[in-house]
Amino acid sequence: MARNVEFDEALAISRAMDVFWKKGYNGTKMRDLTEAMGINSSSLYNSIGDKHELFIRCIKHYTESRMEAATKQLARISSPMKAIEKFIQSSVYTITNEPNSCLAIKTTFEIAAHDEQVQKVIKMDHKFTYNLLYNLISKAIDRKEITVSEDAAMITDYIINHFSGWHESFIIHKDPRRIKKMADFLLKQLS
């Protein structure tokens, strides 16, 4: 009779996510995952599935955690423009201080173009970010906190597209001041 494997699945997913975050999907081996999770490969296959299924769970965990954190953090800010500033500053912090940057952006460039399941999770994350910013920008326009344009959709796309460029710039130059200066310039353009 096979023995039941008991482990903390949430902790195991978190540990596996850290491995994928550091090494990328293609650079991660099953052995890396089982060592980090503290389980053997048969336990992994029996409880979660293969590497791809585990990765989907990890990227969902990552994006859902970010969504929850952003919602909580920005809900406490009464000014829409201040909330936009906080969101941009938080993004800059992630880009310049997190050792492995943003898992969603890394995943987008590594495998999302060829993997429909991953693409679906990344699209959900992008849709959340878009809607969050769009609603804040619309409110800021209504309150005259943003006066450069009344096109909330264009401003939302404009801001979101900066994030990918900042990630690329930081990977190449490793200069946090450069990213902060670009973010400050973007915020000046809005107000």
Automatic annotation (TrEMBL):
Alphabetical UniProt keywords:
DNA-binding, Transcription, Transcription regulation
- The record places the DNA-binding region at 29-48
Q: Is Thylakoid given among the entry's keywords?
A: no
| Organism domain of life | Bacteria
- One Pfam family, short name: TetR_C_13
For this chain, one GO molecular function annotation is:
DNA binding
Tell me where in this chain the HTH tetR-type domain is found.
Answer: 6-66
Which InterPro entries did the record assign?
Homeodomain-like_sf, HTH_TetR, Tet_transcr_reg_TetR-rel_C_sf, TetR_C
UniProt-recorded name of the protein? Transcriptional regulator, TetR family protein
Q: Which organism is it from?
A: Zunongwangia profunda (strain DSM 18752 / CCTCC AB 206139 / SM-A87)
User: Lineage, please?
Assistant: Bacteria, Pseudomonadati, Bacteroidota, Flavobacteriia, Flavobacteriales
